[in-house]
Amino acid sequence: MKRHSIIASAVELGFLSIAGVAFSHGSGDDQSKIDLVVNTPTEAVSREEGLSAWDRIYAVASHPRCSNCHVDESNIPMWSGPSYGKTRPHGMNINAGISRIGIESIPCSTCHMQSTVPNDIAHGAPHTGHAWMLAPVEFAWFGKSSAEICEQMSDPARNGGRDGDGLVQHIIHDAEIEAFIVWGFNPGGGREAAPGSMQEHLDDMVLWTAAGMPCPAE
Amino acid sequence: MRLTVNRATYEVDVEDDMPLLWALRDELKIKGPKYGCGIAQCGACTVHLDGIAVRACSITTKQAEGREITTIEGLGTPDALHAVQEAWVEHQVVQCGYCQPGQIMSAASFLSMHPEPTDEQIDQAMSANLCRCGTYPRIREAVKAAAAKLQGA
Question: Do B87 and B117 sit in the same domain of this protein?
């Protein structure tokens, strides 16, 4: 395996622009770091290995920590947790709107601050180093099958214009700013984390993309 | 740390991660923002940061440094009420009153972005400010009245 190390430091976040108003949150004193290593395969990755890696990626993508904000054009985020039973729509009549950041009614940022301090308060509105928001509607994962999510994630027209390397870099960038993927694996507040670790997720993304992004049959 | 609250400047000696609500209430004795849940679930502590509603219980004081903080005390004055405050009085929205500073701050922020809101938008925007007295029908009417006042202003 060829290894090169990427040290992603928690950095102060930039600006969330909502209707012309700039938000700049962050204490500036966060010392947390996430170390990720891109383990580039030195040999060809088989389709079977790629599909196996995809199964683990799907387990992450379909986990409530990730899929709850990857919702469809209803624009309604979901809630899951031990006290809710079945996953349910976000309380408080929340609808993030077409903007996906709630600008049509109440911005997500009203309650979800942009901060890299730990999420250690149970039931508190979680926060990350990225401004809180729904994923773009074409990235809808909630309620989708493994094949459906796989086809979406491997389609540059529906994944933010990313090729395989772009998907890998997306995870690395997320770690650099301590955004949503970081939070999914360490949500705090008693929330169930997405399965595995961020390093394992990155490893799986490297394998899956190296295998040509194979997708399971429906 | 220097804070600008209701157009006045204050020096506060607090930890960076102290919630803004604590700094406002305990250090500056500005008691309009109320403590309800402390975890951004109820909205009683809502203030404006550069004109946009945020939950003061969940933002750190450091994050508010250098920003324009507005509490219910700075939205209007008894002699010159904000349109939302006027509408609140005219529609007698308040019952017990505890959540109302947060309701008014949320409504004012919402109307600054949506001068002609639909009922659905009002209900969505104001549902995140909890009112156990159930004043929501009066809140909706007052927000519509305030929108009309602001349009005519």
Answer: yes
Of the candidates A181, A133, A182, A172, which has an alpha carbon nearest to the alpha carbon of residue A32?
A: A182
Whether residue B126 sits in one domain with residue B63 = no
Q: Tell me how far apart the alpha carbons of residues B47 and A26 are, in angstroms, rounded to a whole number.
A: 18
Domain extent, residue B122, equals 83-152
Q: Which residues contact B137 (CB under 8 A, 6 or more apart)?
A: none
pLDDT value, residue A33: 66
Residues of chain B with C-beta less than 8 angstroms from the C-beta of A103: 113
Identity of the residue in B113, B121, B124 whose CB atom sits nearest the CB atom of A19: B113
Q: Which of B58, B121, B125 sits opposite A113 (nearest CB)?
A: B58
Which of B75, B98, B129 is the C-terminal boundary of a domain?
B75
pLDDT digits (tens, 9 = 90+) for A43-90: 999 999 999 999 999 999 999 999 999 999 999 999 997 777 789 999
ipTM for the predicted complex: 0.94
Inter-chain contacts counted by CB atoms under 8 A, chains A and B: 83
Residues B90 and B70 in one domain: no
Residues near A203 by beta carbon (within 8 Å), at least 6 away in sequence = A39, A53
The number of beta carbons lying within 10 Å of the beta carbon of residue A78 is 18
Contact list in A for residue B53 (CB cut-off 8 A) is 106, 110
| Rounded average pLDDT over B53-80 | 96
The answer, for A190 touching chain B at a CB cutoff of 8 Å, is no
Of the candidates A19, A93, A123, the beta carbon closest to that of B127 is on A93
pLDDT band at A34 (very low <50, low <70, confident <90, very high): confident
Does B15 contact chain A (CB < 8 Å)? no
